[in-house]
Specification:
Elements: E1 2-6, E2 9-19, E3 22-23, E4 27-30, E5 34-40, E6 49-50, E7 67-72, E8 76-81, E9 94-99, H1 112-133
Parallel strand pairs: 2-5, 4-9
Antiparallel strand pairs: 1-2, 2-3, 5-7, 6-8, 8-9
Length: 134
């Protein structure tokens, strides 16, 4: 990750390297305002297309040694793929950029911990009674 100072504040640049016809990271986590740069380390062309419609352009538009950057200002999940090496956003040469904090963990069922503990005590007690009767 690179860090640049802009107007006194630090803005990170996250690099995603492309090699062996794969994205080096298939899940990129960024904060709003950070830049993600895709770098083609392969000896052949790739591209980066986001499901939202932005990207490097036509298939194969990111030549060997070239890079392309995008600043992500808004929270969300942005799926991307190489049009040349993937037919959809779910498989093949594809990934996602997750911008912003992850959502809260799912709520726990109230009282489940207590209920589980009581059930364990009841089972242990029943086993103890059976052993005592023998």
């Amino acid at each position: 990750m690179l860090v640049a100072t802009v107007g006194g504040a630090q803005a990170a640049t996250i690099e995603v390297h492309i090699s062996n016809a794969m994205f080096g990271q298939t899940t990129v986590v960024a904060n709003p305002g950070e830049t993600v740069t895709f770098v083609n380390d392969d000896a052949f062309a790739h591209d980066v297309l986001f499901e939202a419609g932005f990207g490097t352009g036509a298939p194969g538009s990111l030549g060997p040694g070239a890079s392309w950057s995008h600043v992500f200002d808004t929270n969300g999940t942005y799926r991307f793929r190489c049009q040349t090496h993937s037919s959809n956003f779910d498989a093949g040469m594809a990934g996602k950029v997750v911008v912003g904090a992850a959502g809260p963990p799912p709520a726990k069922s109230p009282g489940f911990g207590l209920l589980g503990a009581l059930a364990a005590l009841a089972v242990a007690g029943a086993r103890g009674l059976r052993r005592a009767r023998r």
